[in-house]
Every structure is written in structure tokens, then in C-alpha cells.
Amino acid sequence: MDKKEILEKSRAENQNRDLYAQEVSKTANSAAVLVMVIIAAVFFLLQLYVDGTLNYGIWALIFSSDMTAHWVKFVKFKSKGELLAAILYTVIVAVFAGNHIYQLLAH
Hints:
- This protein is mostly helical.
- It folds into two domains: 52 residues; 54 residues.
- The chain is 88% helix and 0% strand.
- Helix 2 packs antiparallel against helix 3 and helix 3 packs antiparallel against helix 4.
């Protein structure tokens, strides 16, 4: 195989996507999730300190990103591990969302 054939094969495998751009995008997404979790934790603790209540809605939102990622991975890879993780995160999101809605309606 010559250089041109290798390049064409690589492009076909990567569907003309730049691998560096993919890595940067993954890093950016990971950083964004980390910042989201830190900000959510600060808001959660501030609310707990200021008025003594718990905001489960914030955590429902945070865990919904992991839930969605595992469902997408399960659909693409058909992995039992991804299915179990997706179900677990779905239950966590449902519990947090249910608690949040209950608190809203109870007041």
C-alpha cells in the first residue's frame, strides 16, 4: 500500500473527520461536564446552607447527561454493561426528578 491508499483508507474509516478535532471535542465535553457538576454542587450546598432545603432538580439534570450518554452508547454498541448503566442512571434521574416535583407540589 502506498501513502495515498493509506490516506484514503484512513479517511474512509474516519468518515473524513479530523481525529484531532474529535479529541479536542471530547476534552471540551469532559471539561464542560466537570464544571457543570462543580457549579451544581455549589448551588446545592448554598441552598442547603441558606434555607435548609435540598434541590433535587439540579442533580436530576446532572445525572441526565450520564443517563443520555449511556443510552446512546447502548443503542450504538448493544453492550449489556451500557444497558445496565443506562437503566441505573434512569432510575437515579427518576428518583431525583420525582423528589424535586414532590417538593414543589408540597409547598
